[in-house]
Design brief:
With 213 residues, the protein is α/β, with parallel strands linked by helices. The protein is built from seven helices and nine strands. It has a nine-stranded mixed β-sheet, with helices on both faces. Strand 4 and strand 5 form a beta hairpin. The model has no long low-confidence stretch (mean pLDDT 97). Bound molecules: S-adenosylmethionine. S-adenosylmethionine (SAM) binds next to strand 2.
Length: 213
């Protein structure tokens, strides 16, 4: 999607993807990372997700990347982390840094240990997802892991975002350079009226653990 689309969505408050609770699958599957204190986790296309609060309590360095500066400011203000520091395009509070900018320009010479992808790859159109997966793998250390949460639904009924990202596509995008384990699959009737009204009958959430070779 165009950058302006997302920036405008934040300006207009069209942020139905934002959750007011920690994601249950993050809490459930985080232990599989076997993370050690002071390792680093990257949260691409992070919005102002509260999951970064939860991750920051696990003694990790949390690095989010988000296009919208409004989202980044709201993250710190709404969570009473108002003594943050701003340097260039990075907002930092203790072990959390949120970088305002395009994820595809994010670089880290040391590499990250983990990536948490919830509503990130599914926010991108198909044409961009190959570059996104390639960039994620490039940013991970060897042996680094991705906890990935996707949605699948009948894309002919509705155009995204969120886009349907199938298991076959996940295998195609990550399978050459990583091992992929499907941890969970949950199908339900869609709760969101946007999907119901479009005639989407099933909405499937899948959770994967991906480990870079
Ligand atoms: C569907 S939202 C999900 C946000 C967050 N992951 C969550 O779970 O609440 C996608 C986010 O990606 C951001 N975004 C889209 N394209 C981006 C890009 N190229 N670089 C950085 N952020 C981007 C949008 O501004 C939006 O906040």
């Amino acid at each position: 999607m165009e950058h302006e689309f997302w920036k405008q969505a934040w300006e207009d408050g069209r942020t139905g993807f934002h959750r007011s609770e920690y994601h249950p699958e993050l809490i459930k599957y985080f232990p599989l990372f076997e993370a050690k204190s002071e390792e680093s986790i990257l949260v691409p296309l992070c919005g102002k997700t509260l999951d970064m609060i939860w991750l920051s309590h696990q003694n990790l360095y949390v690095h989010g990347v988000e296009l919208s500066e409004k989202a980044v400011r709201e993250y710190f203000l709404e969570n009473n982390l108002d003594d943050y520091k701003v340097e260039e395009n990075c907002y930092t509070h203790q072990n959390t840094t949120l970088e305002v900018g395009d994820f595809f320009k994010h670089n880290n010479v040391n590499g990250h240990d983990y990536i948490y992808d919830r509503a990130a790859i599914v926010a991108l159109p198909k044409a961009t997802r190959k570059e996104y997966a390639h960039h994620c793998l490039k940013l991970l250390k060897p042996g680094g892991r991705i906890l990935l949460i996707t949605f699948e639904y009948d894309q002919t009924k509705l155009s995204g975002p969120p886009f349907s990202v199938t298991e076959a596509e996940v295998n195609e995008l990550y399978g050459k350079e990583a091992s992929i384990e499907l941890l969970e699959k949950k199908s339900d009737k869609p709760k969101n009226p946007k999907f119901k009204d479009a005639g989407v009958e099933f909405f499937t959430q899948k959770v994967y653990m991906i480990e870079k070779n």
